[in-house]
Amino acid sequence: MSERTTVSIPDLIAQKGKEKIAVLTAYDAPSARILDAAGIDVLLVGDSVAMAVYGEPSTLTASLDALIRHTKAVSGAARRALVVGDMPFLSYQASPADAVRNAGRFLAEGGCGAIKLEGGRRVLPAVEAILSADIPVMGHVGMTPQSFRKFGGFKVQGKSAGAAEEILQDAVALDAAGCFAIVLECVPEALAERITSTVSVPTIGIGAGPHCDGQVLVYHDLLGLSGDFRPKFVRRYAELAPVIEDAARRYLEDVKSGAFPSRDETFAPDAPPLRRVY
Hints:
By secondary structure, this protein is α/β, with parallel strands linked by helices. Helices cover 40% and strands 13% of the residues.
């Protein structure tokens, strides 16, 4: 295995205003290996795994242990990209001590290079405690999915002048605390541009327009694996669902007809040991 040459946090900070940052979610080793080989800068092991992989209606059911397992899989496969583990609901809200302990598990057990958590000034004690433990933090403001019940659903935030100012101040506080990047989710384009020009660290947009320092998409949305879910801000770069369905149908036909397996696809007595078990 070649020596790991990870994109560093100073690398990302230096890209602000010079080179856009490409972020994608990843939840397992095969997808991480592919995205890493493509040159993606950051792989975010998001709590969105609850919705994208497990079919849940929100991210709230993502557990700490599950996120750490997914993070370990991604970290083990990525050779270049910075891997960021996403702290799930109730893993950092109870107390700063819990937040540090749980964030540390992401690095020690999950093998990632940083963590992400949602919220602005209200989570500053947790952010500051985690940063004091030398654990890098990516912030997240705007539409924070773990708070969707408070918002009345997954809705654009910051549309009024007062709400926009609150989100801006949250981003400024996270920047001042020492976060190395801030996700801006589902906020008006003008607000995202204002925040990006105000804070000193990169902003990563999702549904926040083109003026952010980088963009993030969910892996399954990128590849057309999310069914009918297609928000306006998602661009599908492939439509793999029908391709996979077609392959499964052809396999079904070959099994039913007896065409699979053929003789040369049957193990010989002297075949080498399997590298994968079923």
